[in-house]
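step=encode ok
step=design start
structure_in=
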């Protein structure tokens, strides 16, 4: 929903204006509410003032009547003589005439006589205290839980003999009379003080407004509060129609705003929407003819977009043509041929893919040059395109042109095609003789590779077998998926432990102890079993996996050495480094950083042939390794074409004689002279000599006599796992008082030997 511009614009316009409407409506509502509150508060205060005035007037009337009654001669005489009948009768007549709630006489001795009653009563102590403190006491009084407005006047005959008290009840009728005086429909109530004189008002209910007036107490008695309450909803009732009208107007206005905003946004975004649709069509490769009649910025944008779309279409066509054309010969390329194969109807059966190659093309190119060779390939391609049997052509290799031929053609027909197009070609005015051969494959039948690749392989197979026309031989080619699988297995083996390091001890013939070990790579394939190290290392070199494999070896060896040191075996570890990595400066930089302070405890074994391949870079990198503290050992010396000049230039500390010279070594064999001379040569160059392939005591004694420094081979120990190596080191038993080991060091666990 929010992905469309018109929706966003509608929401923006409608939302903004809607917020303004809501703000105005809110301000109106707040203003009306405030006005209502002010009016109600003023009315409550006015009503409270009226009641206060009524309270004072009523109090004055009661006081005047009480004063008149207290001065009546007959009444005073009756009170002085305590004539109960006369007093009760007089009080009752006056109470009835004045419409009083209660009237009674309080004698100075604390007794009281009420109107219409002849029986004396005890006066409450609070009333007695009030009148004794103030003869003319007035105010709020509670008698038997009922609230009264009361006044008192002293009776003197001639001295004070008592007090007359008149009281007007503050009942519901009285409060209703007060409510009727207000212009608003309020409720009135009196909240008296408690015995301690504290007044606790109830909480104001929600939506109510309140005004209070303090009422004086009778003498020293606690006072009370007049409470006036009025609901705000009642005050808002006159404004409700106006508020409803405002709400309806706001809602209607908001709806109109949303509809108007949507219509305006639709009008504004219609050209943009068309531009968006056109863009998607262009992205999907569909030609676009955009027609926008607007003359504003959007219209100009649409016109520019149309021009761009046409240019993009032309450019796409040009790019497509270039992608399907060989830039050197201007012939269709491999992609064009593959596309033609993909476009074949049905299951692609019924066609042959043929790779036609010019024999000895490298020699021809040497003779005539690259430009002339391109011209030669273009001329041959033109001939093939015109041949009746050929459906499609394309350059598929530097010396081969691929063609599609109907399955109706057999190998004899392919040979005839070669004969038809193999006559001399004119290049720059010179006639050049060419010989052609062809490799064929059936499209869609038992495919191992794609048809173009199978045809190229068939061409190579035919040339190897000296066949002019050859059909792709699937059995001899094998299954390349095995190679891909092996690469994947190798990566998995580094993490699951099937690829691991074994360590073969190197025995110092002079110190008569194991002072170092050689780390040897092992792979126990889960399906193929133990893999030959030479084969999978060569495979890693050919597939580009040698670098990550070697990085794993260095990191693993570093970690294993830390375990050896922790067990009390400070051994130097020799690692075999591929010749391809000896010129990889970035890898060697990584190795130096990875080994860090432990560089001097590691030795890199390299072959002299690895140095010969790129001596300048290799020798420079060896110098950097030596500067970092890593020792260099020349491995398998004598197995290749050894160069004394390179041997002299390599800053190596160790030379290892290949086991091929040792396995059949006797004191009288011709190999003995070669081994002895090699040992002497190495010593003259300042190198120690390690002899590999020591498998018998006799051979060990011979190389010892020749001056060899270190022995390595099965007689000493086979390659061992890390745990077996540690156990082997803990049980070494080399005699120290003889010139030779009496017996080979025994392996603690032959099952651990690898």
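sequence_out=
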């Amino acid at each position: 929903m929010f992905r469309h511009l018109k929706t966003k614009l509608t929401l923006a316009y409608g939302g903004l204006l809607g917020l303004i409407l809501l703000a105005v409506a809110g301000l109106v509502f707040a203003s009306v509410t405030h006005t209502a509150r002010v009016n109600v508060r003023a009315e409550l205060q006015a009503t409270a003032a009226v009641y206060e005035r009524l309270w004072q007037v009523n109090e004055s009337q009661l006081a005047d009547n009480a004063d008149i009654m207290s001065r009546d001669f007959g009444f005073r005489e009756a009170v002085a003589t305590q004539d109960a009948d006369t007093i009760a009768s007089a009080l009752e007549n006056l109470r009835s005439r004045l419409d009083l709630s209660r009237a009674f006489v309080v004698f100075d001795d604390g007794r009281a006589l009420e109107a219409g009653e002849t029986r004396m009563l005890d006066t409450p102590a609070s009333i007695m205290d009030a009148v004794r403190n103030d003869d003319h006491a007035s105010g709020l009084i509670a008698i038997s839980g009922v609230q009264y407005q009361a006044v008192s006047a002293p009776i003197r005959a001639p001295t004070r003999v008592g007090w007359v008290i008149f009281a007007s009840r503050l009942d519901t009728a009285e409060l209703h009379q007060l409510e009727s005086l207000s212009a608003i429909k309020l409720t009135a109530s009196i909240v008296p003080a408690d015995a301690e004189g504290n007044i606790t008002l109830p909480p104001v209910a929600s939506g109510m407004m309140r005004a209070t007036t303090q009422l004086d107490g009778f003498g020293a008695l606690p006072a009370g509060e007049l409470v006036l309450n009025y609901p705000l909803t009642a005050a808002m009732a006159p404004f409700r129609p106006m508020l409803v009208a405002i709400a309806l107007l706001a809602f209607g206005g908001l709806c109109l705003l949303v509809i108007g905003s949507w219509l305006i946004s639709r009008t504004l975004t219609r050209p943009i929407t068309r531009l968006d649709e056109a863009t998607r069509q262009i992205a999907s490769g569909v030609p676009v003819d955009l027609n926008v009649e607007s003359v504003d910025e959007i219209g100009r944008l649409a016109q520019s977009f149309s021009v761009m779309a046409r240019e993009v279409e032309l450019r796409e066509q040009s790019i497509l043509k270039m992608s399907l054309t060989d830039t050197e010969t201007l012939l269709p390329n491999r992609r064009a041929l593959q596309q033609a194969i993909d476009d074949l109807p049905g299951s692609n059966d019924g066609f042959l893919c043929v790779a036609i190659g010019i024999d000895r093309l490298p020699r021809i190119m040497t003779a005539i040059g690259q430009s002339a060779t391109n011209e030669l390939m273009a001329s041959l391609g033109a001939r093939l395109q015109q041949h009746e049997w050929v459906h499609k052509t394309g350059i598929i290799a530097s010396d081969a042109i691929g063609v599609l031929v109907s399955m109706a053609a057999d190998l004899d027909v392919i040979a005839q095609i070669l004969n038809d197009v193999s006559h001399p070609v004119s290049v720059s005015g010179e006639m050049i003789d060419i010989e052609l051969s062809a490799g064929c494959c059936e499209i869609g039948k038992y495919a191992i590779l794609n048809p173009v690749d199978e045809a190229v392989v068939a061409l190579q197979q035919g040339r190897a077998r000296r066949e002019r026309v050859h059909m792709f031989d699937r059995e001899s080619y094998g299954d390349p998926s095995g190679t891909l699988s092996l690469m994947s297995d190798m990566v998995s083996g580094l993490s699951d432990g099937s690829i691991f390091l074994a360590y073969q001890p190197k025995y110092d013939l002079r110190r008569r102890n194991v002072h170092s070990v050689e780390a040897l790579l092992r792979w126990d394939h889960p399906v193929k079993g133990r893999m030959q190290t030479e084969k999978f290392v060569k495979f890693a070199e050919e597939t580009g996996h040698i670098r990550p494999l070697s990085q794993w070896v260095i990191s693993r060896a570093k970690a294993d050495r830390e375990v050896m040191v922790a067990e009390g075996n400070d051994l130097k570890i020799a690692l075999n480094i591929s010749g391809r990595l000896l010129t990889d400066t970035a890898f060697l930089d990584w190795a130096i950083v990875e080994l860090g302070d432990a560089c001097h405890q590691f030795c890199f074994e390299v072959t002299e042939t690895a140095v010969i391949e790129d001596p300048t870079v290799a020798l420079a990198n060896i110098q950097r390794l030596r500067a970092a503290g890593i020792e260099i050992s020349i491995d398998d010396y004598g197995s290749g074409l050894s160069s004394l000049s390179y041997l002299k230039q390599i800053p190596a500390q160790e030379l290892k004689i290949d086991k091929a010279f040792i396995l059949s070594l006797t004191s009288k064999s011709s190999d003995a002279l070669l081994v002895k001379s090699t040992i002497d040569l190495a010593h003259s160059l300042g190198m120690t000599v390690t002899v590999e392939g020591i498998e018998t005591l006799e051979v060990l004694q011979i190389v010892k006599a020749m001056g060899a420094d270190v022995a390595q081979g099965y007689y000493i120990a086979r390659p061992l796992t890390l745990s077996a190596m540690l156990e082997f080191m803990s049980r070494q038993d080399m005699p120290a008082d003889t010139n030779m080991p009496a017996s080979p060091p025994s392996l603690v666990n032959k099952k651990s030997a690898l």
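step=design ok
step=annotate ok -> The radius of gyration is 60 Å.
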